[in-house]
Amino acid sequence: MSRPTVRAAVLYPDQAVTVTEVVLDPPGPGEVEVEIVAAGVCRSDLHAIEGHWPVPLPAVLGHEGAGIVTSLGAGVAGLEVGDHVVLSWVPVCGSCRHCAAQRPWLCEPADELIFAQGVLYDGTSRWHKGDDRLHHFFGVSAFAERVVVPASGAIPIRRDAPLDVVAIVGCAVATGVGAVLNTAQVPAGAELAVIGCGGVGLSCIQGARIAGAARIVAVDVNPAKLAIAKALGAHDTVDVSQTDTATALRDLQPAGFDYVIDAIGHVETTEQAIAAIGMGGAAVIVGAPRAGETARFDPLALVDAGQRILGSNYGSTDPRRDFPRLVDRYMAGELDLDTLISGSRPLTEINEALKELADGHALRTLLIP
Ligand code: APR
Ligand code: ZN
Ligand code: ZN
């Protein structure tokens, strides 16, 4: 019997991304197969392509998507065929010390196997091309017609939510809103700045609006992104294409901010974020830099002013708890996802979508298999 094939976008070690037919094995114990309805293109996909992170290759790319469960492996509880799901790129083990301590976004086996080795929990991959094994990417590999993921990475949501919108909850929105509501726990009345207004930064701005922040300042080098930031709740915008961010933020608010979020993750934006916080403030580092980079800050100022630097991995998200809530907020009109989606393309146009993101012309583009 011939093995089932699906169309998928494979990232090869030479950085080429190619849409091709690949073999997808059926789900093993504790795994589910999901038919992808839509998948978002994220800056982290570009990081992988550009070799900024050690990612096992070749791999089926993509880590933000939503779809419908099509089959269940042995022993899967809590999911049914036909369930609508948003995929999570931390498919938690549920039993390591971080999972036990209610910090599932730090799940150790997810980090060691799913991330570092590009395999599922049994140490193998469901993806093949001819005799070659392909890797999973972030345990999701959403740029495909169908995927097999750990059951814990398929988060059921209400069926009246449009999957080709809520797909972006799985990375940009969980990461950005979560950085504000979970990692920083920004209280009402806080004064805050967000550096970078891509899909992640705009989600931070929306999290700040939901939290009731008294002042939200959006920082970007692209006026079009700043206009969107304003529409999504920023009170002030700063175009730093010609000026230094830390200076511009000091000019705007000499006492510094309660929270400054780095939603880009360049060394300089991280340093700017730390430099712009006020007494008792916190810098929240959400954007991910290249592996191995280091940033500098003034430790005495940090001690004197009682400041904090918070790393926010996946917005400190508990997917089972937070994804359905984020979808509910969207359906209730409290969270704007439509504005974050700049368009959709067929999966075959993945390279055009990646280029648009790299060039700064797109927010989230959804790929439709
Ligand atoms: N200062 C201010 N804004 C900048 C600068 C800069 N030096 N450089 C780039 N930007 C802006 C871009 O104009 C763009 O609007 O930062 C934004 C980045 O957005 P995206 O490329 O859409 O990235 P996004 O998907 O939001 O991800 C941001 O979070 O998850 C991580 O890996 C991801 O590190 C990435 C970050
Ligand atoms: Zn992402
Ligand atoms: Zn765990």
Task: Note down, in words, how this protein is organized.
With 369 residues, the chain is an alpha/beta fold. It folds into 2 domains: 5-170 and 336-368, Quinone Oxidoreductase, Chain A, domain 1 (Alpha-Beta Complex); 175-313, NAD(P)-binding Rossmann-like Domain (Rossmann fold), CATH 3.40.50.720. 28% of the residues lie in helices and 27% in strands. The chain is built from 12 helices and 19 strands. The chain has helices at residues 43-49, 97-100, 108-115, 163-166, 172-183, 199-211, 223-231, 245-252, 267-275, 299-304, 319-331, 350-358, and strands at 5-11, 17-24, 31-40, 59-60, 65-72, 84-87, 127-129, 132-133, 135-136, 146-150, 154-156, 191-195, 215-220, 236-239, 257-262, 277-285, 308-311, 341-346, 364-368. Strands 3, 5, 6, 10, 11, 18 and 19 form a 7-stranded mixed β-sheet that branches. A 6-stranded mixed β-sheet has the order 8-7-2-1-4-9, with no helix packed on it. Strands 14-13-12-15-16-17 form a 6-stranded parallel β-sheet, sandwiched between helices. Helix 5 packs parallel to helix 6. The longest helix has 13 residues, at 199-211. The protein is globular, with a radius of gyration of 20 Å. The structure holds adenosine-5-diphosphoribose (APR) and zinc ion (2 copies). One zinc ion binds at residues 92-94, 96, 98-99, 107-109.
